Amino acid sequence: MAFPRYFFLLLALLPLLGQAQRPTLPRDTPVPTIRPKAILPAAPGQRPPGKKVAGKGAPIKLLTAGALVGGDFNGIKIRKLLGNVSFQQEDTFLYCDSAYQYLDRNQVEAFSNVRVLQSDTMTITGDKGFFDGDKRTARMTGNVVMRDPRITLTTPSLDYDLNRKTASYTETGHLTDPQNTLDSQQGFYDTNSKVFVFKRGVHLVTPDSELNNDTLRYNTVSKIAYFEGPTRIKGKSGNLYAEGGNYNTLTRVSNFKRNAKIDTPNYLLGGDQLIYDEARLYGVARGHVTLISKKDNLTLRGDVGRYWRGLGRTKLYGGRPVVRNISEKDTLYLAADTLISMEARPGQTTTRTVLYAYPKVKIFRGNLQGICDSLTYDRQDSIIYLNRNPVLWQAKNQLTADSMQIRSKRGRVDEMRLYANAFAVSQDTLLNFNQTKGRNMMAYFRDNKLRRIDVLGNAESIFYALDNDTATTGMNRVLSANMRMLFLDSKLNKITVLSNPEAKFIPPHELKPDDERLKGYSWHAKERPTRRQVLGKQFDDRPKKRKATKKKTSATTRRTATAPATLKKTTPKTTAPKPSPTPKAVAKPTKPAAAVSPPKQPATTPTPRR
User: Fold this and answer.
1) Which residues pair with 261 in a beta bridge?
2) End-to-end CA distance of the chain, in Å?
3) What are phi and psi of 177, to 5 degrees?
4) What structural domains does the chain harbor?
5) Where is this region: Disordered (predicted)?
6) CA 563 to CA 147: how far, in whole Å?
7) Range in 172-186, 369-383, 543-557 with the lowest mean pLDDT
């Protein structure tokens, strides 16, 4: 009776064997192949091997094992298998050094060098594994590595659904493919669609960039990463930020949405949507586009923006693009249909930074406004060139010419140059139009106020003389080769004739309509732009005023307010009209430097003119 003694001895040692370390045998060591049907047939009530029960997975088949011990332990039927153990269920194979097979549960617990293979395409290895044949799930723990033809995933633990062919982890994971690496706290992988979903602390590294965000979907076939939430990509040519979109790690093309931005050493470009090609150094932004120049505190806004970093060129159009340039406390606003900004190309430092605006240009800056057809802004020298019918307004002065220049120093207007058909018009307190024209003009400013205008060539002027700002005493008409006009608080104060003057004084009663206008006179007050017209409603950056809330009155207050007037008679008070403020006196012009002087004023009381 040697066989019963040997069997009971194995039963006595089985608890100790379960607690002992599983032996590991070399893969090339020949071991006997055990057929489970021949050694341990199905017990009464146990699922027959190879027969599938409705609603449950197929039985897990034991293929090979070096040694087998079976029995009923604490009411649980277990097979303990040692040495080169292998199982099969449908298209899935399980390999390990040792295992427990739970017969009535259709489950396997595998130990040491565990390997799961499905359809010869996906392999999972680990230190320990638990295989549920009915649920068709596998849980691997300890140095888990998952491989398919495209990726390799390393994680401390992994859950795998054999039916859906999906894997998930919750204890950090490291993904690698031939081009990229990715780390995250949690992950989900669908081997059918080859799509990964990563969450919490996502960090993607490509050969040319680095991505960080909280939620990311990554297609291992197309190599496209889809992200949600705040996302930052660091690249060689700049940094990208967005709160939604996708990034192709092969073509390096980003499609960003929601508060998208490109941050380069010199510029910050943003918009509602941003498409950027790192290989071509080309980007397109749409919706509330903003381009900020970090060097000269310049901001460009528009609806659509195109950025050619390789060419150093940015173009904005749509919705009347606006330029905003802040210099100390003075801000320049400029609007046009199209804005083009030129900067130095990568690797170049000599290219001038220039801004082009066209057509229908409008300017607003403190007490200086202007319009023209096209404009060039040399940001390096702080010179603005106005072309084709430019008009500038400063306080009550209007300047026109065929072309103009505005030169600034320390962020303030310092000088204006008017070329060809220069014309200056100013309004006095009686709404008379003082006019000066010439071939060219030079206008000088101090503290953003007009101080002097030099007329160079063919100078001609008409200037009204006032009596205490209440009446016009006559008009001075002067012709000269050159002329100088001096201003006080941006108001015309004095005219000085410099050479070859011809002057005359015309009394009010002798004035004719043709005498009151110089040839080429034109008043464009209605075209003077306002701040709202330049910025546009969508780009107005002023803080919105809060609407005053009406307080609810009580019923008693309403009754008091609506009491009949017969209770108390009131006599309305008569208020005398307030006198209108007396306008400030304007200094009369000095006599021209030449021998010709205007005739004396008549002794009669002058006739007021408006």
Assistant:
1) 241, 270
2) 140
3) -135, 180
4) 58-166 (2.60.450.10), 389-528 (2.60.450.10)
5) 522-610
6) 90
7) 543-557
